[in-house]
Amino acid sequence: MAFKPANNIQDLQYFGEFGGVNPSISDSSTYTFLSAKTMFDTFEGNADGCYLYSRHSSPSNLYLGEALAAMEGTETATVTASGMGAITAVLLQLCGASEHVVSSRTIYGGTYAFLKNFTPRMGIETSFVDITKLDAVEAAITPKTKVLFCESVSNPLLEVADIRGLAALAKKHNLKLVVDNTFSPLSISPIKLGADIVVHSLTKFINGSSDTVGGVICGNQELIDDLRNVNDGAAMLLGSTMDSLRSASVLKNLRTLHIRMQQHSYNAAYLADKFEKDGLKTVYPGLRSHPSHKLFKSMMNDKYGYGGMLTIDVGSLDKANSLMELMQERNLGYLAVSLGFYKTLFSAPGSSTSSEIPEDEQVEMGLSDGLIRFSIGLDADIERTYQMMNACMVELGILEATMA
Length: 404
Ligand SMILES: *Cc1c(COP(=O)(O)O)cnc(C)c1O
Description:
The protein has two domains: 5-254, Type I PLP-dependent aspartate aminotransferase-like (Major domain) (Aspartate Aminotransferase, domain 2, 3-Layer(aba) Sandwich); 257-403, Alpha-Beta Complex (Aspartate Aminotransferase, domain 1). 37% of the residues lie in helices and 14% in strands. It is built from 15 helices and twelve strands. The strands form two sheets. A seven-stranded mixed beta sheet has the order 1-7-6-5-4-2-3, sandwiched between helices. Helix 3 (59-72) packs parallel to helix 10 (244-254) and helix 11 (257-277) packs parallel to helix 15. Bound molecules: pyridoxal-5'-phosphate. Pyridoxal-5'-phosphate (PLP) is lined by residues 82-84, 108, 110-111, 151, 155, 180, 182-183, 201, 203-204, 213, 215.
């Protein structure tokens, strides 16, 4: 039977302490015990259902973690204060001095900077590879490799990882395949395709209201227990803990994710198709011209579509900047980083979210100056949006006027 991630979220049932339809929020950092012995056991992680201190866990954080584990099909999950809080914790949990990571080279700028500049200080080295070439990935694996890291749909170039193929490599070489699924929640379920661990920045589509940062690590019980171990758990000791008030609010937003993803995908597919027909260099996994269109199709959960992210290349950074300013002036979206908002967000990745990546490497991976990354919003009338965006492009000489 097909995996139904949205059903798994919907089927969860939590009530508040007075029968509220939403679970009560645990507004406490510390918890009392009737017995001193239970306090000791709880500290050691051996007293199920008891809480000690909210950096360790809190009821609200556990509710959200469970819902996200249900979405990804893992045994359990732990939420973190940001996506980077999840990524850094999981990588440091799995790798130590003299160990090695094989990572996609087209990843979120912060993750890239962490692996490139920060983890070498701890003796962890990373090889960055073209994730779409399985032979290149395998060639980079050494006896010291512990982790294979990728994004299911990469930021910002929208390359698609062959998760089944990567999972087979991970299995063969006894590595953990960690997939950042931030760009494709619900659309792609990496665990079902063989991944070991899924991380998300909740900041983006999952929360969807651009009011907070947040993250999650979804995995098996053993991994999550390790991350939360009071003696050597990275999530526990690095302290990237989400606040309970926030996790309660993210949980409420998660319940509409399936509806939002369908609308993001519908709108993005509409615009991508129009932009491509207008002759713009357009990248969207839902377009047949996308090199990994078929691969995405073979991995996706039908109905959530190909996601809300697309890029166009308008030729130069100047043109990209003028277009983004004009679109913002006409209220077609905001010139802002991040993604998953109800409004369309656009930015030029080379000079913003991927600026951690040195220019020569940007060129090598195909990150050009004129690239604009769009996170397409929930616009009720996407045809009107298209007409108005097209008018901006004609006005700036990016497109020639057509006889519409
Ligand atoms: C935003 C983002 C992150 C980092 O998440 P934060 O919540 O900003 O820490 C990681 N990976 C991807 C793909 C992202 O888009």
